[in-house]
Amino acid sequence: MKEITCEEMKKWQKDSYLLIDVRDEGLRLYGMIPGALALDPEAGEVEKRKIAELPKEKKLVFYCEIGRRTRDFEEADFPEHPECFSLEGGYIGYVRSYTADEKDREDKQRIAEESIRKKFHKQLFSPFAKACKLYRLIEEGDHIAVCISGGKDSMLMAKLFQEIQRHKHCNFELTFLVMDPGYNADNRQLIESNAKALGIPITVFESDIFDAVDTIEKSPCYICARMRRGYLYSRAKALGCNKIALGHHYDDVIETILMGMLHGAQIQTMMPKLHSTNFEGMELIRPLYLVREQDICAWRDYNELHFLQCACHFTDTCSTCHEDGTTSSKRLETKKLIAALKKENPYIESNIFRSVENVNVDTVIAYKKKGVRHHFLDEY
Questions:
Q1: What angle do CA 174, 153, 180 make, to 5 degrees?
Q2: What are the φ and ψ backbone dihedral angles of 27, each rounded to 5 degrees?
């Protein structure tokens, strides 16, 4: 299929073409090109019929994550439409081009901050502040390294930290820490550009983690995540911080609980905070613990912000990984399962979340405490 660049597409009349997003749901959660339709011609005849029913006079521009998949589409598969194109660089290419010519940074920062204080106060700031108070995540004299990966979650977390610091209920310092584990120049530039547009004064340091995990065949995402956390702890401590903050949200928590049961044969959760076992005096906190992902996405889209979901070498094939090493497909599978269960029980999400707050040890066959395994027969 013929390729078209973002710059060439921008010269067309907006009503002369349609954008077709063929990525999976997990990737679309990180953002879509405004106005695009989510259809996957490879998913079956139903999707193909939907494409066939689109206005014949309009050009169709297909895009995946980085452009490789749609480039291999055959124009003959869409005989109803004489002009079909593959967007060069895919969604990632669009994000980079969009950021490169972004104007009025001061307005973007002001509008983003106002939306947190007004439109999204109840959905974002209130649960953020509640988690900080409920789990005692921010304490007097803290110096917190707000770890920014460049995605929607960590960028919003940074803005929420700036907002709560304005209230001056507690004296604490912030360092907005970005680790470059081996990004290519475009991805590094995108993170820096978004941070500048949002008024986040980032501190960037470099490591060679991507090169180190490139040769690892088994569980590279898990090892990468562990190494990244170690580097963040080390640099944060060197900067005088006593805590690092990560951007895991409510949906990450319930998905982790369910995946642990279904795939790991264990009951565990992401803790709102925990002590580091390798860096004395350091803590990890998760202030987005009570914030819903759909609200993060709504804030991002309202402010027309565009972020990369992952920029590692392994995602160059239109897939993605998660902070804890799980793949996009496994998380997406769990998201769909929770959504299906919610149709029958609207309280399913809160029930999963609260289940690890209501563990009755008297009815558990075995459990671990500080690494020591206990069995019910020990005290039977």
A1: 70
A2: -75, -35
